[in-house]
């Protein structure tokens, strides 16, 4: 049984901690005392049914701490899953939280292998190793979906470790043994290649979202049946029937920041496609807002800020961009979001009562159609064609 510390109790950190704690002694470290207390009480601070269920398992070897000295001392492995938000001023991820944990671990558990799970710029890990003169540092990306992070950790599409060595293989075996998919593909690469895999994978997903959104925009402008076109296109097995449901744009925690970071990494490399993917998201929001404005609404209701069902995260959700554009045109906007415990959101009134929200709004904007809006179908504006996050 290994002693493992996981720094960061968000989707990536908590899902990895719970997965590893089934076989190893794991301590979750986070600066948010309320989040740590929730985990200590065996309740999940994030929306993930599998995590909520697993936390109630008394056989889980899981401890919690807000004290780095306590959490890191004696660790064999340190997994870093702290936030790396994109900073538009520096044009790259803010990696200060990652560097802070690495420096603490160098002092408190210098023999441990430090595994960066946070998404970082291409070249970051090797540069940090050189800067600190510290070799026990490896990047291993995650490929998780919000709302099903533990499921995706236990059933990985692939395991990527940024070190081609017996130590890299040991880390891959640790993750493989903790999963429920013993035949998951394992790829040992360099750290920089592993970082690129993460950013290019998410940018490809963003590109696919942008493609079907622009197909939908074309169909809407020309009064064509977008669903028929998408179904016909996706019958080609090379394209496939997935990630093809139109939306208000790609959003959430990962895709917007990862595409912008990858674009920044292209500062000395010729490209046109990566810039187009980033720009396409802005173009889509412009179209959606203009399309809503053509309905001449007096009050627009935003139904849910979260990106998709099963998620509790509405950070950078695409509907917020639409909302801001409508407000800039002088349209009154109200919001219904049960997870938002506030009376206003960006100076728009938050309506807690769904029935009242339905009455007040002339047009109800929803990224995904839901059963609780069936009685006001005539008010709904949505580009959802398939009724699912697909």
TrEMBL record:
NAD(+) binds at residues 30, 35, 84, 119, 146, 257, 315. Residues 301-388 form the UDP-glucose/GDP-mannose dehydrogenase C-terminal domain. The active site is at 254 (nucleophile). Substrate binds at residues 143-146, 198, 243-247, 251, 307-308, 389. It catalyses: UDP-alpha-D-glucose + 2 NAD(+) + H2O = UDP-alpha-D-glucuronate + 2 NADH + 3 H(+). It holds the Pfam family UDPG_MGDP_dh. GO terms for biological process: polysaccharide biosynthetic process. The keyword Cell division does not apply. This is UDP-glucose 6-dehydrogenase. NCBIfam families: NDP-sugDHase. InterPro entries: 6-PGluconate_DH-like_C_sf, 6PGD_dom2, NAD(P)-bd_dom_sf, UDP-Glc/GDP-Man, UDP-Glc/GDP-Man_DH_C, UDP-Glc/GDP-Man_DH_C_sf, UDP-Glc/GDP-Man_DH_dimer, UDP-Glc/GDP-Man_DH_N. SMART domains: UDPG_MGDP_dh_C (SM00984). Keywords: NAD, Oxidoreductase. Belongs to the UDP-glucose/GDP-mannose dehydrogenase family. One of its GO terms (molecular function) is UDP-glucose 6-dehydrogenase activity. Its EC number is 1.1.1.22. It is an enzyme of class 1 (oxidoreductase). Pathway: Nucleotide-sugar biosynthesis; UDP-alpha-D-glucuronate biosynthesis; UDP-alpha-D-glucuronate from UDP-alpha-D-glucose: step 1/1.
